[in-house]
Amino acid sequence: MTEKLRKEGGYVEDTRFVLHDVSEEEKIDMLHKHSERLAIAFGLISTRPGTPLRIAKNLTVCGDCHEFTKLVSKLFKREIVVRDANSLSLLQQKIVIQISMPCEKSRSKAMALVARADGVSSMGVTGDGKNKLEVVGDGVDTVCLVKCLRKKIGHANILLVEEVKEKKPEEKKPEEPKIIEYQPPYWNHGYYQYHYHNTPQQPWWWQWR
Questions:
Q1: Taking the alpha carbons of 11, 14, 18, 19 in that order, is the dihedral positive or negative?
Q2: Where is each HMA domain found (predicted)?
């Protein structure tokens, strides 16, 4: 694979990322033995063409391996995602595992096994038949977890692995200014009534004259 990268991709090992007090051949040999390279090689030979490869590493990926991964992705036409210690600390994953849990005892045992896994922050039993485990965590080794469940509980399959995105708080829209109409006050002007009174000296129609 490395020879193909050299011929078709112009790949040259960058030995600045390994020990300096050894020979150049030993430096190149050290680069070739980096764990992410071995994982990529294993993924290429054990999966079908076009299958995406996702690799998690508990250490930081060196610059040479970063360039190596990009060339492999381009030449072999594969989507390759490598997450190292820096990215794993920021990654929250939701994992859904289908597992045979016919009774409450088996569910409790499965939950106890998942709780002991590194990186698990929450978990629960879901599904209509209560045959699914939903696990949320940071840097959880999904493959190792499923192997453990198969060994201790029974048949288990990975149904879903996805990143948990943080919900952004909803931005409150500023309230539109309300126009308040003020009615002019109503003034009740008083008035005086003047009555004419009949006197014996005036006729009754005098007041309407």
A1: positive
A2: 92-161
> Would you say 207 and 199 are in contact if contact means Cβ atoms under 8 Å apart?
no
Rounded distance between C-alpha atoms, residue 161 and residue 93, angstroms: 7
**pLDDT tens digits along 100-145:** 888 888 889 999 888 888 778 888 998 888 889 999 887 677 877 8
pLDDT tens column, 149-165: 888 888 899 888 887 77
- According to the model, what pLDDT value does residue 195 have? 52
Question: Does 15 score more than 80 pLDDT?
Answer: yes
DSSP the chain: -HHHHHHHH-----GGGS-SSS-HHHHHHHHHT-HHHHHHHHHHHHS-TT--EEEE-SSPPPHHHHHHHHHHHHHTT--EEEE-HHHHTT-EEEEEEEE---SHHHHHHHHHHHHTSTTEEEEEEESTTS-EEEEEEES--HHHHHHHHHHHT--EEEEEEEE-PPPPPPPPPPPPPPP-PPPPPPP------------TTS-GGGGG-
The percent of residues in the chain predicted with pLDDT above 90, rounded, is 4
Read off φ and ψ for residue 170, nearest 5 degrees.
-70, 130
Average pLDDT over residues 186-207: 54
80-83 and 53-56 strand pairing: parallel
Rg (CA), the chain: 40
